[in-house]
């Protein structure tokens, strides 16, 4: 896929040494909540698209992940280097990492039982493509879980939010997304949409893959 590379894509290597500090305000209980929303079972194949520095890896239950495989992808080599250290510190987890743009996942259809999209949809150049790719590689009946920031559903973004988004989207993230618009028409059934952090600004959204369609 030949996609123009936004400025913020090239900044993730710069952000990597400070990323854990930037996101330290998100409590572990919130991270654990979206990991638990995956409802992992032994033997599951899990994809974490946008694994970043691997902050979610220590939260994966070794019991639930028995016999399972964890694959993490990110477009930043510096982020992946930090994720690799976390993966090595959990030797009972089987898995690997790949340098990959989640807009164009290099996996076959229905390769995974669970797909986690943590703080990636709103930072992506094309959020819908990220979710479409996550749905494509998830098996029918599997789960796609998103943790990210979204505007209140069903209401247009306010003028202050739109103004702030001009800067925010350039350097990191879109704060005007409505997840129902991002997911419209994709082979996904909404299972839950729960506030997780800062009121309803950050939400945990769980979709079930309902049929195979590229």
Residue share in β-strands: 25-35%
Which fold name is given in CATH as the topology? Rossmann fold
How many strands in all? 7
CATH-defined architecture: 3-Layer(aba) Sandwich
**In this structure, how is the largest beta sheet organized?**
7 strands, mixed
Q: What structural class results from the helix and strand content?
A: alpha/beta
| Unreliable residue runs | none
Tally of contiguous helical segments: 6
What this model shows, in words?
- The protein contains six helices and seven strands.
- By secondary structure, the chain is an alpha/beta fold.
- It has a seven-stranded mixed beta sheet.
- Helix 1 (7-22) packs parallel to helix 3 (77-88).
- The longest helix has 16 residues, at 7-22.
- The chain starts with 6 loop residues before the first helix and ends in a 5-residue tail after the last strand.
